[in-house]
Structure formats: structure tokens, C-alpha cells
């Protein structure tokens, strides 16, 4: 059965354990996603990062996987599937070194990245009030508020924006048909009506702990900066901030009592260079400063491809084009996927 390039991306994304990095490695090894899809298990294990467990799972699932059925499933939920080969794929997510190959979107994504508001799942009353205060400010300025729909800070940030009729983007760690946490379904419905629910997880993916670090990177990818309201030393919000720092985005943190365990993470971020904010207006200058460059997108694609095809290393390409290394790496990953899909 012949599929389109985007349908092969959808099909591979339905296999647990095959994400963006492995998909690039698979494409590079076999020359095309179509050839890889029809490969034998022993040949798949020759790909770096593909072990017996992943190869066996792929071979067992392959006969029952249909991207057309997956597209019908998404339509049944009122959602759309967007792949890296589609023009609708958001430019801001292409900034990631390895963008999610496939996105499931319920609602409408903003044209430009927003501001992420993240924090602990068990906030104090002060933390809740701060999440609401800063989110309300961003919504009043027409800036999309991005978060993970988790319990705690995420929930109160989203709820405040929805109450104000603002633009909210919730990045999920589950698939659209199995929303997690389930008690947030009512809020999720309102977010989809005013903004968007987004996930990279297919109908075949279970909700497991490993999903949430991947979700955190997408939160950063949808953002022009990350505000950490209240977070302990091991909070997932710190991981979201780390992704933002790797991308060269602004990171803000709200300070608190030095003995408060729920502020240990935010205080560490401030020590590492995150901007200390004490009121919502502190975000304004940074927000306006980054609004322009992030919307410019990719400007030197043909030159990058020529240098890449000539065998230059990513660092050399970045130097030659006077562009950030992370941006160059992201475009190379995208180029490899698109070339392998016959795009």
C-alpha cells in the first residue's frame, strides 16, 4: 500500500519508542521512510539507537498501523494532524533541534509563540495568586499563555486566561483521546475553543512518565520565553526552563522566602542567570524585545542546504551564515526528514 510522505511520518510516530531523533537516524540509514517502513527487524537493529525491543515492537505493530485510520481518529475528535512536511507546521516549533515530526492539534495554534507560565503541581496560595496575576497580565496584552495542563500552576494559569477570554495553548503529555489529568477535561474543552490543545502523542501512545520531559520541550518550543512561578529543585518546570535556555530564550523566575522548598528551583534559576521578576510589568520589555526576531523564521534555507550537501559540519555552517548553532541544527534535522520523505 502506497502512502504519502506525511502519512509515513504519521505511521512512524504511532510506534512507541520512535521519536524525532530515531526517525532521522532511520531515514539516514535506509534512504527513505518508505524503505524503512518495509525493512526487516534485523535491518532496523542496524540503525543507531534502535535495539531489539524497539525493532520487535515495530514489527509486531506494523501490520495493524494505518495513518489513514489515525487521520480519521483525529477528525473524529475535531482535531487535525500536522506533520513536518506540511506548510501549516508552526515555524516556532521548527526552532527545536529535533522538532516533533507529528503534531495533533485541537483548536487553533497562535501564529507567533507565546509566554510559558509553569511551576509546581502543589503550589501555595501565594503561588496560585502569582500564576493568576502574571497570566492575567499576559492575556491582557494579547500574548498567548503556554503551559502543560498539569495540576497546580499550569491549571491556574490556563484557567485565568480562559476566564479572560485570552489565548491559551496547552501542551499535553497524553494523546487527545486520553486526556491527562482527566479532571481537567472541562478546562481543556474551553482551551480548545479559545486557543489550542497540542500533543505529539498518537492514539497508540499510553500516558507514561517519559512523556512529560518531551512535553516540556514542546512547551519551550511554543514560547518566546518561560516564566517559572514556583518550583522545587526537581520540578519539571525547571526542565522546561532548561530547554528555553538551550534555545536562547528568556527565562524569568519569581523569588520567594529563601527557606521555602517550593522556591528552591526558582532561586537556582536566578543564580544561573534567569531574570528575577517581582511584578508582571517586568516581563514587558523582554517580551517586546523578542517579538520581532522570532517571527522572521528561516531565511537562508537554500544556502544552508548547499553547505550541508557540501559536507560542512554544523558549526562551520553556523559560522559561515552567522547564525546560531541551535537554529542551524534544527534546520538540518528538518531538511533530513523532508529529504527522506521525498518532500
- Structural class determined from secondary elements: alpha/beta
Number of helices: 16
Shape descriptor reads globular
Strand content: 5-15%
The arrangement of helices and strands along the chain is: HHHHHHEEEHEHEHEHEHEHEHHHH
What is the CATH fold-level name of the largest domain?
Rossmann fold
- Strand tally, please? 9
What value does the average pLDDT take? 87
Question: How many structural units, i.e. domains?
Answer: 3
Instruction: Estimate percent helicity.
Output: 40-55%
Largest sheet features: 9 strands, mixed
> How far is the N terminus from the C terminus?
19 Å
Low-confidence stretches: 289-302
**Any idea what the radius of gyration is?**
20 Å
The CATH class of the largest domain, by name, is Alpha Beta
Q: If classified by CATH, what would the architecture of the largest domain be?
A: 3-Layer(aba) Sandwich
The largest beta-sheet arranges its strands as: 1-2-6-5-4-3-7-8-9
